[in-house]
Amino acid sequence: VLRDATMGPYVTLAWLDISNCQVSALGAGWLGEVLGNNRSLRTLKLSWNDIGAKGCRLVAEGLQTNSALNMLDMSWCGIGDGGGAEIATMLLTNCGLTKLDLTGNGLGDLAALELGRALADSNKTLQHLLLHNNPIGWQGARKLLRATLAESIQSIELCGCHLLHRPGGASEFDPRFPWGEYHLNLAIPADRAVAFQLAEVTATDALSSPQWVDAALDGQPFQ
Fold this sequence. Notes:
Structural class: alpha/beta
CATH topology of the largest domain: Leucine-rich repeat, LRR (right-handed beta-alpha superhelix)
CATH architecture of the largest domain: Alpha-Beta Horseshoe
CATH superfamily of the largest domain: Ribonuclease Inhibitor
Number of strands: 8
Order of helices and strands: HEHEHEHEHEHEHEE
Oligomer: single chain
Number of helices: 7
């Protein structure tokens, strides 16, 4: 019934909520077909369905060429990092979505990286991204936010994403974005090289520079 109601030349359905309706990956295949052809639907809510990564791929494929849908709620659908990567691929070509909710889908830092790349490289329309209750972690959030600093996105919501920051080491240093907290062992050449670069940032950018706490080398203050 829903298939007939959402496809055809005279369909005007603009809002569809099938949250918690036991939609499976098989049902997601139908949704992908609908999204590939429907040009009237503006809001689609799919939360709390067992879609999984496979079902997410089918939905994402339908959205690659859909410019009509503005809001997609796929929260709590168990898509995981695999599904997150499929969504990221979709965002490379989709030019309709302005709000996307992926809350509670088990997305980790790998999915965050892919989503960030898509938003930075190609997508210019998404404005609001909800990622609450995903184990993205500090590094995942960092990758995502870095990639979207200069783009059109207005908000990224990350409540409950395990963002407790643990000070990083030399391997986490990025000269383009040096801000953060570091625990460096200045007896190690790589750590010492990072410390020198951070010192240069301190000297050239006093307003936003890192703050030094108890920095010493061979018992002497390190500046």
